[in-house]
Design brief:
Layout: H1 3-36, H2 40-68, H3 70-90, H4 94-122, H5 125-136, H6 138-149, H7 157-178, H8 195-200, H9 202-228, H10 234-248, H11 254-261, H12 263-281, H13 290-316, H14 321-349, H15 352-364, H16 386-391
Helix pairs in contact: 1-2, 1-3, 1-4, 1-5, 1-6, 1-7, 1-9, 2-3, 2-4, 2-14, 3-4, 3-7, 6-10, 9-12, 9-13, 9-14, 9-15, 10-13, 11-12, 12-13, 12-15, 13-14, 14-15
InterPro entries: MFS, MFS_dom, MFS_Efflux_Transporters, MFS_trans_sf
Subcellular location: Cell membrane
Main location: membrane
């Protein structure tokens, strides 16, 4: 299949689910909180539902995509974010808002595995890395788009979510028309794992959870904190959010840094930058420029570090890259559930400044749990595509390719 024909709708779907459906909530949270009369604790719990829903659906989609087919799973993700956006925009109270949040959050877990699967089936091997990189950029593009729409003072947050819902419907139709359907069920061997793999994953599980906790307060309450200072216009607040997405696109250089300086160096670099971004925001009331520097550093380091976790996970689960991707991203979401819930309580008990300092300090802890990966000569299992291609001739016949020196494999990280 032509590269752009598949990648562009993929970018749009990732931008819709992650950008519009999931991360936009932090941008509109101050207005939502005021209109629905929510406390910071309630806002934190509701925000944590995004990540909680993701935890369940990423497991479901990982296990079921090969059974129902990637197109059906992508359609399910599209319907989920559509329902979520409408629910959030319509919500008259915290209960309906929570239901909308659950559907919007669920879409992000549903969309990641099937799009990675789709790329592996219909995009040529030498173009898969580029395809995954472009589709991954959808999150940053979605964030920038939400920041731009927030500049439109003539529409409120409810109307904005309804506009997002219309866009989500258009993207859903686009993907339905473009994504090929498989004539037969998929039955591709994706590898296995053993007790040694599970034992080796302890560090990445703890690290991912801690990083999830430390970043949750920024995703959920950063705009509320900056807005509450009273020193920034609506235009400035939108720029703050746009910078997270804009610099997030730069964070895709993590692969190059790992190749040049190693996994441990890249990991330390990302952890330090991410923690500094969170702590720096605590000084927002005193220095006018700080929020914009902090947003830029956070966006870049967050995407950078998720790329590091991806490579680290694949190196651990060398025989099952799906687990290498799924486990750190699942635990990152688990940490964000915990972090978002506790952040609201801390803000109510203390204030924004102390809460961001506490979470920034937590962000440094992973430095003491650095990646220890023993590289092996075992290659990833080869997928048996012959029968599948015979049934579906349009599928690109290829095998998993691994660099014998770096053990780097192209996979998605959304």
């Amino acid at each position: 299949m032509k590269f752009s024909k598949l990648v562009f709708p993929g970018i749009a779907m990732i931008a819709t689910t992650y950008g519009l459906g999931r991360f936009s909530f932090g941008l509109f949270l101050p207005e939502v909180t005021n209109d629905l009369h929510l406390t910071a604790s309630q806002s934190g719990v509701i925000s944590s539902l995004f990540y909680l829903a993701y935890c369940f659906t990423i497991i479901y989609s990982t296990l079921q995509t090969d059974k129902i087919g990637p197109k059906r799973m992508i359609m399910l993700a599209g319907f989920s974010v559509l329902i979520g956006l409408v629910g959030i925009g319509f919500s008259p109270n915290a209960i309906i808002l929570s239901i909308g949040v659950i559907f919007a959050g669920a879409s992000t877990g549903l969309i990641s595995p099937p799009y990675g699967y789709t790329i592996s089936l219909w995009i040529k091997v030498h173009e898969q890395g580029k395809a995954n990189t472009w589709i991954n950029s959808g999150t940053s593009i979605g964030l920038m788009f939400t920041g731009i729409t927030a500049m439109f003072a003539f529409i409120d947050w409810r109307q904005t979510y309804f506009v997002y819902a219309i866009l989500a419907l258009a993207v859903l139709i686009w993907n339905y028309l473009i994504i090929p359907s498989l004539k037969e069920d998929i039955n591709i061997h994706t590898g296995s794992f053993n007790i040694r793999d599970i034992s080796a994953s302890t560090r990445i599980v703890i690290t991912s959870t801690l990083l999830g906790i430390s970043t949750a307060t920024f995703w959920t309450f950063s705009k509320s904190f900056v807005q509450n200072t009273g020193n920034y216009s609506d235009f400035a607040l939108s720029i703050f959010w746009i910078l997270i997405g804009l610099f997030g696109m730069i964070g895709g250089i993590s692969g190059a840094i790992i190749d040049k300086r190693g996994l441990h160096y890249a990991f330390n670099l990302g952890v330090i930058a991410l923690a500094i971004a969170t702590i720096a925001l605590a000084f927002t009331p005193n220095i006018w420029l700080i929020p914009f520097v902090s947003a830029s550093l956070f966006g870049m380091s967050y995407i950078f570090l998720t790329g590091v976790l991806l490579v680290w996970g694949i190196k651990i689960f060398v025989k099952n890259a799906s687990l290498g991707i799924g486990i750190p991203f699942l635990m990152l979401a688990v940490g964000q559930v915990i972090g978002a819930s506790l952040a609201g309580l801390l803000i109510d008990a203390f204030n924004f400044m102390y809460t961001f300092i506490i979470y920034g300090v937590i962000g440094f802890i992973p430095l003491f749990i650095y990646p220890k990966v023993k590289l092996e000569e075992n290659q990833l299992p080869k997928g048996d595509y012959s029968q599948l291609q015979h049934q579906n001739p349009e599928i690109i016949n290829h095998e998993h390719v691994e660099d014998s020196e770096t053990h780097h494999t192209d996979h998605q990280y959304y």
